[in-house]
Amino acid sequence: MAIFNPFVPSFKINPYLQYSRLRSDEPVHRSMALQAWILTRYEDCLNVLKDIENFSSDGRYASGEIGRAVREQRKTAPLGDVDSLLTVDPPTHTHLRGIINREFTPRRVERLLPRIEEIACELCNDIDVLDEFDLIDSLALPLPVIVIAELLGIPPSDRQLFKEWSNKLAATTDVFNSEQAIKEAQETTQELILYFSDFMNARRRFPEDDLISAFVHAQSDGVELSDDEILAFSILLLVAGNETTTNLIGNGIMALVNNQKSFSLIKENPNQISAMVEEILRFDSPVQGVVRIAKNDLSFDGTDISAGEVVMAMVGAANHDPEQFVDPETFDINRLNNRHLSFGLGPHFCLGAPLARLEASVLFKEFFKRFSVIESARSDVERGGTLLLRGFTKLPILVKK
To answer: Which of 16, 53, 154, 164 lies 20 to 30 angstroms, CA to CA, from 143?
Structure first.
């Protein structure tokens, strides 16, 4: 029988070994520890993400203790009864996303390019005279914090507080959370509600060119997005927009540290940066898994799954499936047909994907202009993340110009 144990230290260092064994031995695996079905094949994960008739994003539909815990938590949590893009299904999801799409547009993201370039340049200027620094603390963490803060309209004086809130909430994205972690997340959410409520009221009186102003003034035009829904989306953007982009940048630099040939290639051909970002997303995805609930009794590749059971589509594993990707354990910036699942698929495809790609591409371009050698100070590297998110909390690197 296949074994899946995400609680051993080696899993945080390299989950792909366990994924590979599971994919070969039992690709539809029942984890008793997680009380969930674990999927590791590309085609299986793809089908779950696309199939909104049989799989739900709403944890309240889960059976047993998991469902009871989710329902109880949503009863007591701040904004727990508010529909969120991550936790609702069509047609409610379609309605919410349609409204948000009117304001959070590709054009608005494109307009951020000059400012993102400025921020990346400023951050790189700060470390330009150094030969060793923590990539997370110096670059990967502050860039998305500043960008998301400015997108929402948050003043510079509140950015540190903004990131602290993000870190606290991101820590509770794991499938197992202690009562203390849940309590802290609820307290953090309440602080954010108070902050954003005051901010929304200020923007009603004095609008500016930011996302919060756009949402609150769209209300007066008859767009049905309540204050609570604006709050829920702002908090979602805070967490998803910061943590995953930080992980993308950190995972990418570590991939290049371990693949110096690719680093040399990208230095010689900076026009390949976009392709490199896609390979980073595939090779070491910032998001490792997506949780769904079976809505109906069904047979999945000959295995019976009951309505209400939790299904985890491990997109990090799917991105390493040799049936989909040639030589998947090799980091290859020239990879063709790189149809990874790191941003999901279907109705829940990541709304912030264009922004994450843009931020990472701009920062890498600026970074590669300045440094010709990168190495890891391995003894001080700290892996962070959860079962569903993968990244670094500390990544000291050595550089030369």
So the answer is: 16
